[in-house]
Structure formats: structure tokens, C-alpha cells
Write a structure and sequence with these properties.
By secondary structure, the protein is of the alpha/beta class. It is about 30% helix and about 20% strand. The strands form 2 sheets. The chain has a 6-stranded parallel sheet, with helices on one face. A 4-stranded antiparallel sheet has the order 7-8-9-10, covered by helices on one side.
């Protein structure tokens, strides 16, 4: 999926889990993958790299040094959120914006991160951090520190609709990741969602309907089904 599909950015996995002191061949492999992505999409397309907290302190700096020439939109979780105090040293040496927050679960979890001044983008997940109401409070805190918002949402279409609602209300999020399909099979039954949210693969328009703008029809193996609106 490229700019031709309406996309303006991509986020890619950074690396497998690294040991505390690991091979520079792994760093070279990461740099090669990012270089290939940059060559494929051009300089005007955003690229973010997610490390999923898989990198330990000794390997972060040599890894980011290799990635800095590729003008990344941000790096996500260069260290695990539990080690956010290490970001001061990282932020002082590199110009790549830093994002984290999917493993923080309330405004109190974000308080220390925001006060440190070393994070550029927060990524609260509505499914983890208290839903729409709590995320609104976290976002208001971030505004006081001039920190951007990119809600984290890999968990399905209902969570995505909640993120879109937050995005539309706050009016200040940066790009957010999304999948192409609102459909998933789980536990032997087929759960599908119809949506009143309009858009293409690259962007969504604001929801003009009550609540989250989704309706679910859940079909069980017995062919019985139930239907309900999601609010």
C-alpha cells in the first residue's frame, strides 16, 4: 500500500529482540530494511520504526545512529516504557522524534513521561488506558507539554472507531496506524462489523452518526445471530 492508495506514511517493525550486547550484523540488517523502505517510497513519505521495547540500553545509540540519515517520522519504544528515564540520554544525542505510551495505563503513568520532556509523541491505547474519557484527560495533559498524540490501536475495529472519535474531537493527532479490513474470525464464529464511518484506506472522514458509528452482526455456527448498535 502506497501513496497511490491514499497513504502518506507507514510504520514498520524495527528488529527482532536484541541482547544487551548484540551483533552489529543485526543493526546493519535493520538499517538495510529501513533504507529499502525509504528508497521505495521516496523522501516525501513518512516512515516510523517500532522497536516494541525489544532494544536494551547498550544497543540503542548505535542503532539510532545508523537510522538517523533516513529522516524518520519517529521511532517507537526505543526502550521499554519501564525504562523511560533512559530517554534523556537518547534524546540529547539524536534528532529522531521519540514515541511511546502503549504500555502506560492511566494519566498517572503518562505524568512522569510528560514531565521528563524527552518524549515527542504519546500513544495511549483506549483499550488499555481507561477508554475515551481517560484518553481525553491524557491528551489534555500532553497539550500542556507541547507533545503530539498518536492513539495506539491494533486491537480491532471497535477500538479503531474509538480512536477516530478521539482524533476528530481533539483535532491534533498525528497519523495513526490502521488495517485495511474490519473483519476477523475468532473462536469458531464469524464476527463482522458494518460501519457508517466514511473514508478510503488512507484517511477517514468524521463520524456523523451517534456513538461510534458501528453496527455488529455476529453469526454463530448454528446460524443464529444477534445484532446490536455499539455505543
Amino acid at each position: 500500500m502506497t501513496a497511490a492508495h491514499g497513504f502518506t506514511a507507514l510504520k514498520m517493525n524495527g528488529t527482532e529482540e536484541l541482547q544487551y550486547i548484540d551483533s552489529f550484523a543485526k543493526i546493519d540488517r535493520v538499517a538495510k530494511n529501513v533504507a529499502a523502505a525509504r528508497a521505495a517510497v521516496g523522501n516525501d513519505f513518512g516512515i516510523a520504526v517500532d522497536f516494541h521495547g525489544r532494544v536494551h540500553r547498550p544497543m540503542v545509540k548505535p542503532l539510532l545512529r545508523e537510522l538517523e540519515p533516513y529522516r524518520l517520522m519517529f521511532v517507537e519504544e526505543p526502550v521499554h516504557s519501564e525504562h523511560a528515564d533512559l530517554l534523556k540520554d537518547i534524546a540529547s544525542q539524536f534528532s529522531i522524534p521519540i514515541a511511546l505510551g502503549e504500555r502506560l495505563y492511566s494519566r498517572w503513568g503518562f505524568k512522569h513521561v510528560l514531565q521528563s520532556g524527552h518524549v515527542d509523541i504519546i500513544q495511549p491505547d483506549p483499550s488499555h488506558a481507561g477508554g475515551i474519557t481517560e484518553i481525553r484527560k491524557i491528551t489534555a495533559m500532553a497539550e500542556c507539554y507541547n507533545v503530539a498524540l498518536a492513539p495506539h490501536c491494533p486491537l480491532g475495529p471497535i477500538a479503531l472507531a474509538a480512536c477516530l472519535q478521539l482524533n476528530a474531537e481533539r483535532g491534533r493527532p498525528i497519523r495513526r496506524p490502521q488495517t485495511a479490513k474490519f473483519h476477523q474470525k475468532e473462536n469458531g464464529h464469524d464476527s463482522s462489523l458494518s460501519s457508517s464511518i466514511q473514508g478510503n484506506l488512507g484517511a477517514f472522514c468524521g463520524n456523523q452518526h451517534p456513538v461510534l458509528g458501528l453496527q455488529s452482526i455476529q453469526r454463530w455456527p448454528s446460524h443464529q445471530h444477534s445484532e446490536w448498535a455499539l455505543g
